[in-house]
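Justification of computing resources. Each target in the renewal requires a structure prediction run like the one illustrated here; the chain below, 317 residues long, is used simply to show the kind of job we budget for.
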Amino acid sequence: MVTQMVTETEVITTARSVGRGRPRGPRTKSYHVRLGSWWWALPALVLVLVVIYASTVAGGFYAFTNWTGVGDWDFVGLKNFVKIFQTPELVGSLWNTLFLAFGFLIFTNILGLLFALALNRGLKSRYVLRTLVFMPVVVSPIAVSYIWKFIFDYNGPLNQFVSSFGMPKQNWLASPTLAIWCVLVVLVWQNIGFIMVTYLAGLATVPVEMEEAAAIDGAGAFRRFRYVVLPMIQPSVAIATTLTLIQGLRVFDQVVALTNGGPAGATQTLALEVYNWAFTYQQFGFGAALALVLSLLILVFSIGQQYATRDRSQKEA
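Resulting structure tokens:
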């Protein structure tokens, strides 16, 4: 009897030892535990789906209708889009939008990059100067536009400065030729600081040793920038150009505050046309069609810009 109990004890002990020696498989969380890892984000996801994606799909649908914002509507197919490209005022708004977008893209990136290169290193006062250049970015676009509207006034500081040199005063915002350039100036001036910071982040990744080695090899400042610095800040170039292109295509605040689309539609943009047709003229279906055209423009140009500024290694791949 004692021998049988000892034997059973040894078997149980051996089984436990074998069980402990077996490798344990990966622990699998229960459904409720895995659900808890993303459950906290569900309200935000639902809000994004409803406010952004659902409203975008609804707006795209109403672009093919004659809905006025209330009441019944009829499906009109492509008539809204045909009307857009057959209306000279709307085609002019399209060209104004493209002019501001690409002008904003070119001038803001060139000036922002120049400021970044100048304030990258070397100057003791570079941190103060960076702050001064960046300050307009944090001010409301409407506030900045009204300040510049005062500057561009016929009796404002700019004309007083010009007349002090014996030059005639200009109707800056009332001239069909000069008004759109004034809008572009305000756009560029306010956003130089943001693009400068974007390029400064890229320049911080460029090793000083590489520039010094290139200088020792006889490369001038331009060749060092072209063959050493520029390839290494390619991601910053892609980000800065994409943001400026999108912001230029959907410009609205500055135009409303400075000219409200005038004079004679010289500064009218697609974003302002969307607002006017949807909320002023109560033609919500046609305004949705204009918004869809603007969204497609942003999408097409953004994809093309991303393709043009991608890394050379990706191009070769």
